[in-house]
Fold N-acetylglucosamine-6-phosphate deacetylase.
Amino acid sequence: MMPSNKSVSDAPIVQFTNCQILRNHQLQREDLWVREGKILNPEKLFFDEKGSADIQLDCKNSIIAPGFIDVQINGGFGVDFSLATEDIKSGISLVSQKILSHGVTSFCPTLVTSPPSVYHQVLPQISIRNGGPHGAGILGVHLEGPFISQEKKGAHPEHHLRTFESGAFQDLLATYGHLGCVRIVTLAPEMKRSSEVIQELTRRGICVSLGHSVANLSQAEEAVQQGATFITHLFNAMLPFHHRDPGIVGLLTSDQIPAGRRVFYGMISDGIHTNPAALRIAHRAHPKGLVLVTDAIAGMGLAPGKHTLGQQVIEVYGMNTYIAGTKTLSGSVATMDSCVRHFLEATGCTVEMALEAASLHPAQLLGIEQQKGTLNYDNDADFLLLDDSLHVQATYISGVQVWPQDTFAL
């Protein structure tokens, strides 16, 4: 006699019906089955366990997509991750809670160029953790700078920029003080001794991103051959595309990428950082590498006015953010769901492609696509219910609805 599903697991099985789910790059009319925080293969359930759903939820024709993953977010809702305080955790917790309503189920808190004392104080207070009703999961920190180009510093404070001295990787360790929770480092590959740093970071499983840089194409290609896999906010804070030397932008169509490797690139699709035509050029040149990032600052979710980004004062006017008293762009106040909608509208790409740019691609970049970024069987049940215009209706982490929270869950 076949066992009932109860003998395999007592955990309830939830079946989401009347929905279109994003699976294998297509929106498909099928149900989503979840048990114990994972996506379940219903065929196995029927044939091996003779099981059925304990709970059925009518999704009223919603789209179900994997949760969004933001690999570059500097803060939001008044919290600036680059400000050293005694209690970094509560600021990160606030942001991780608030971004649930924008469909972000995991993220990389990002620190901009700061003095070593800030890294030494902040980094030990951040730990990698799973998401849940308390907020989006933390995948590790993105350190953007201080090993970047003076000419392309953007909103990074010049007097805190650094170069690699004779110690190279040791200089980086001394600056940051702690790499335990670090997932991504953005650096300028044209700097002397950067290649040994890229190799050592890569060896430790840390993703190296190229950005805030005046690198030419051959310097960028060499960095990729040493292990770099990402480009920080394409087109922003780098040499503009030039036909005789396309610079870092040329990596999108380079024939010097090692076999079996893919270069990913972040784009801030907020309608301000990149003209829609530039978004379209990048997307058409290399669609599978495009990763949507918010690059959000503390002013996201707040009224316009003065906010901070690390050591700088930032003025926010509408969707525009500038270093106070200048016209230098500094991060964004866009939310991830609005970036996905703007990207869809600007490029005319498919809904599937827009959703994957905020879920599958960042998961592939970080090498976690076996757990997150898709609705494949056995993956984490981190997903969103969206309407046809891609507004988030509900956010789930590990199969539990975390936004909007039911009154009894508060």
